[in-house]
Amino acid sequence: HAMNVSIVRNLLTVGRALFRKFAGRTPLTEKECLEMINRHLFISSPMNAKEEESPTLSSKLSASQEENLAGIVHSYGLFELPEGMDERTAVTKLLHCEEGFAVKVRNLRNVAVMFDELLAMKLICYKWQHRLVEGKHLISSQSEECVTTSSLSSALSESKKSPTLQQERIRSDVKNKLGK
Q1: Helix, strand, coil % (nearest 5) of the chain?
Q2: Residue range 26-44, pLDDT digits in tens
Q3: Which of 39, 40, 60, 113 is most deeply buried (CB count within 10 A of its CB)?
Q4: R_g (Cα) of the chain, nearest Å
Q5: CB under 8 Å, gap of 24 or more: what pairs does 17-25 form?
Q6: In degrees to the nearest 10, what's the CA dihedral of 34, 37, 40, 41?
Q7: Alpha-carbon distances, residue 17 vs 6, 119, 120, 173 (angstroms)
Q8: How many Å separate Cα 131 from the centre of its chain?
Q9: What is d(CA 143, CA 20) in angstroms, rounded to the nearest whole number?
Q10: What is residue 140's DSSP assignment?
Q11: Which helix (H) or strand (E) holds 80?
């Protein structure tokens, strides 16, 4: 069920043109639904093509929003930062997927919630999980290994099933402090 909701949400946010083609028709056949999903997942739209050119999270955050995000990262102790590095620098490097940069994640669910809320506000790209994993930017503080897409996805799914008070506060802070 959660995967279906995620697909529909992504279709409505990322694949609007594709959705409009089928909207207004009643009702969609199963074949048409599958075609819409397959097009979204496997065919690059102009928006997706633009994303592929850049290995960043396609951040749309202003300097003050990045500062506020760094404050959230600090408040909730989301990362173990390299010695001498502040949260603002780490956030900037993560958003730009700076090659060779990695941080240790203290609580993967909390980090996943933060990035998911940034996506919900359309402040980062749809492929944020892939970009962070591909660049090996997140390291598990428990296993000392790079975080996988599967572990990020599972953490996000679990946080949506039964969110903790801290995760709800992270979502709220991202909305309130980064809202446009």
Answers
A1: 60, 5, 35
A2: 566 767 666 666 665 554 4
A3: 113
A4: 17
A5: 17/45, 18/45
A6: -100
A7: 18, 19, 19, 31
A8: 9
A9: 45
A10: E
A11: strand 79-80
